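This section describes the prediction task in plain terms. A model, or a person checking by hand, is given the sequence of a single protein chain and must write out its three-dimensional structure as a string of tokens. No templates, partner chains or ligands are provided. The sample shown here is typical of the held-out split.
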Amino acid sequence: MQDFKAATIETGETTIFARWYGSGPPLLLLHGFPQTHLMWRDIAPDLARDHTVVCADLRGYKQSGCPVSSPDHAPYAKRALARDMVAVMERLGFPRFCVAGHDRGGRVAYRLALDHPERVERLAVLDVLPIDIVWERADSNFALGFWPFSLLAQPEPLPETILRQSAEVIVDSALGQWGSSEAAFKPDVRTAYVAALQNGEHPHAICEEYRAAASIDVAHDRADRAAGRKIQCPVLVLWSTDGPLDSWYAEGPLALWRGWANDVTGHSVEGGHFFPEAAPEITTKHLRGFFSSGPRAR
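The expected answer:
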């Protein structure tokens, strides 16, 4: 991503590191765990042929800030992380934009679309379901398969200590266990992901984001559902073929997301949970087709 500009942007609540490049309609890309904006390295340059692509580190990750948290974990709720991205895009001159998010970034992306419908034209969520659905359907498969949800949400300092002292094992387990070929992750990428889990206040911030996902984020989702609030823009759902979303939920990802939005399309993608990195070409094709199709949502 050497052609991308880079800056650390003040949001009013924290600082967010972002890279951007290209021309055309703005498109924000958000990463998951245990990744950083680096996960888009093989996708962003290609999408930048048609869009101005912005890749950001979420609050608490890699080069972005780690604001002080609170007992209710609100500073790391997806609502707060979504506010960061509104501020970043506004400061870059993009009051309205498209957004795609994978894993944790997917949850920030759909919260952004719910809280700021006037900002988001199109939304893509990659291998993720709404937080309240995940916890309502949690079973032994979930507990054993998606262990970060429960492990990193434990009270301080257990998960922070595990992240700092066992970052290499955690990254290797995540990249290898969740259905993607480790060959998709070159040594320098793996090293970058490991470093992001060990540095300074970042382990605590990452755990606070998971604690928020087990508490205040669920409350926000349930409040929206009770109020009948839905995502207003078109939504693309991509998920891992034969992965948890493909096999754990009888209704399937599309049906579950249609409970949250009226305009939902999508399909599975080979490559495991980390298919944006394991299968960047096909992921790029799906994203380009969706974000380049019109008319735009209003």
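For orientation: The mean pLDDT is 94.
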